[in-house]
């Protein structure tokens, strides 16, 4: 049995960043991660930092704090996160009106440049000009998500933190208080338990009788080995973000019963062709997002990989048949596109740190705000994000 001030569940970038910031405050923290080799949304991320995407005072502040942290994080953690500045190219389908799409981006903190097909292909020569009617160009940050999470964990351990590779199977509850967690290896107790387990967070909380409006998609993509004879200059994503529309549809009140009674049946699904090449020359190509309310739902990898490759081939023909392996992971989201951060009302000892629409840029600053808040400081940002059960 281990006694800690805080137990953090989940070793992706959210849980790793949070554990590090809590340890900086002098707290005794135990980080529990289910996989020795990461198999989560952080592992399969594009690695993009959308610091241009703030639309409110809150999100603009977090975007600015987030990019400032990332620009200095390698030095702070004494490890290379592979941070770089990169251009983001948002593709506009051939049948869409570029000016109408461009107008939808007027609310963001940094407005994009609208480029013609010719200008877009000059910035990114791998684009198929026949597949687009134009592109939006934006400044973007980029990191290696695996190396960043590892760097956070190493910094956490240097501060006295402890990591155990054990899967949390149960939250230990006494009346309306969570007192610890259970794993196949034993029970661990703490004053506070923070769930930062991405798509598994809803399941863990529900098993303890705690229901929050946190959801997940089954994301599917292709990872490749290093390919040095093809060079992708930018990060490619679609300008019309169908995933956000799908998420909004699937969190309507009338569909809540489908989440309460999980099913493997497909509720909704979309495909958004995108690509990024990392500094080691490997690619991530994607992605399909499907809403199936059972986190254990089986997905046909052959069909999914073929669909991804078809869409990538239409947009980026040279990448159509490059060698790669299909992967699937859970991606958490909240019903209002804002993260759920803080203590869950009507319960004590249990906190949530999940549901990030832009986790790579939001998680580091929110981890700092959370650590200050849980240490007793007044933080108005965390008050705005508290989850409701």
TrEMBL record:
Instruction: List membrane-spanning regions.
Output: none
Q: Which residues form a coiled coil?
A: none
Cite the InterPro entries for this sequence: FAD-dep_OxRdtase, FAD/NAD-bd_sf
Domain named FAD dependent oxidoreductase: which ranges? 5-373
What Gene3D superfamilies does the entry give? D-Amino Acid Oxidase, subunit A, domain 2 (3.30.9.10), FAD/NAD(P)-binding domain (3.50.50.60)
Q: For this UniProt entry, what's an example GO CC term?
A: cytoplasm
Single Gene Ontology MF annotation: oxidoreductase activity
Name one matching Pfam family.
Answer: DAO
Q: Which UniProt keywords apply?
A: Oxidoreductase
Write the protein's name. Answer: FAD dependent oxidoreductase
């Amino acid at each position: 049995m281990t006694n800690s001030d805080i137990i953090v569940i989940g070793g992706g970038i959210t849980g790793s960043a949070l554990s590090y910031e809590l340890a900086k405050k002098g707290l005794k923290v135990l980080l529990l991660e289910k996989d020795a080799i990461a198999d989560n949304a952080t592992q399969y991320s594009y690695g993009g930092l959308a610091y241009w995407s703030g639309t409110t005072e809150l999100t603009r502040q977090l975007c600015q704090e987030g990019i400032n942290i990332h620009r200095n994080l390698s030095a702070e953690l004494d490890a290379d996160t592979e941070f770089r500045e990169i251009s983001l190219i948002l593709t506009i389908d051939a049948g869409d009106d570029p000016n109408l799409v461009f107008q939808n981006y007027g609310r963001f903190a940094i407005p994009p440049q609208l480029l013609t097909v010719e200008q877009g292909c000059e910035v990114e020569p791998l684009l198929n000009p026949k597949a687009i009617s134009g592109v939006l160009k934006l400044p973007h940050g980029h990191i290696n998500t695996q190396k960043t999470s590892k760097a956070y964990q190493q910094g956490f351990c240097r501060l006295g933190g402890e990591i155990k590779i054990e899967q949390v199977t149960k939250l230990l509850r006494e009346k309306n208080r969570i007192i610890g967690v259970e794993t196949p290896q034993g029970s661990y107790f703490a004053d506070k338990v923070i769930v930062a387990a991405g798509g598994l967070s809803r399941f863990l909380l529900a098993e303890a009788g705690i229901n929050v409006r946190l959801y997940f998609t089954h994301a599917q993509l292709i990872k490749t080995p290093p390919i040095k004879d093809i060079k992708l200059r930018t990060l490619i994503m679609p300008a019309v973000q169908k995933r956000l529309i799908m998420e909004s549809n699937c969190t309507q009140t009338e569909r809540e019963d489908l989440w309460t009674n999980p099913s493997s049946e497909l509720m909704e699904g979309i495909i958004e062709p995108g690509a990024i090449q990392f500094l080691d020359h490997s690619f991530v190509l994607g992605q399909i997002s499907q809403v199936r309310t059972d986190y254990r739902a089986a997905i046909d990898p052959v069909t999914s990989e073929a669909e991804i490759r078809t869409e990538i081939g239409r947009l980026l023909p040279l990448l159509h048949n490059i060698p790669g392996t299909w992967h699937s992971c859970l991606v958490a989201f909240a019903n209002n596109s804002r993260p759920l951060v803080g203590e869950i009302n009507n319960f004590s000892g249990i906190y949530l740190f999940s549901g990030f629409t832009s986790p790579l840029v939001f998680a580091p600053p929110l981890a700092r705000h959370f650590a200050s808040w849980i240490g007793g400081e007044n933080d108005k940002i965390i008050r705005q994000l508290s989850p409701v059960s």
